[in-house]
Input
Amino acid sequence: MFSWSKPKAATAVVGGGDDDSNVDRQPSTVSGPVTALRENPRKPGRYAVHVDGKSVAIVNAAYLHDSALAVGTVLDEAAGDRLLLAARKLEAFDRAAAALGRRARSAHELERWLLQRGFDRADVTDAVQRLTEIGAIDDSQFARAFARSRALGKGMSRRRLAQELARRGVDRPMADAAIAEVLEEESVDERALLEGAARKKLAMLQGQDPDTVRRRLYGYLARRGYDANDIAAVLRRVMAGYTAKP
Output
């Protein structure tokens, strides 16, 4: 027996559409005989559970083992509810792991990403906790990698780095420690970083009149979090002798 409800965005197709091409919309309740267990050849360890001939959930091998689920098992509504809960949690976990595979994220970023895609908060919390336990999410490591990339690659100031990490949910003490560690490891002199960013941008503005260049340089450096007095000082140095070249 099935009772169907309008699915959420994240569970419109169990398994996100990649786990079983014949998976139907997830029901709100399930009961009846298990008629098939089909492993996804592209995702070993992920099984589509068919009840009364319909694929209703994607679960992992551990769930099959722990619940003693097999073809011929007859599910009552309580067992069906447990099956659907396991499927929702696995879907959140798999989607989160895939998102981390595309790019690093803080725990807060990943939570927000999953919630925006319609997952229940409890399932999101469970997925993020599991990924943290296995080391796939590490805010301290994320903060160091972010600080290194943005400081060396984009010339961001210490203050701007702290702001950006706060926006990504990294707590201030952890962010400050990560930034300090990276700047020390890379022997970064913020004044040299500021001047390097200014000269790099100046090369891109060649040909424009001095007033326009100065205004754009100031805005560019201010957006990277540098102090107004430091910006003014570096502009005097890099703009000395500047003439618009065709």
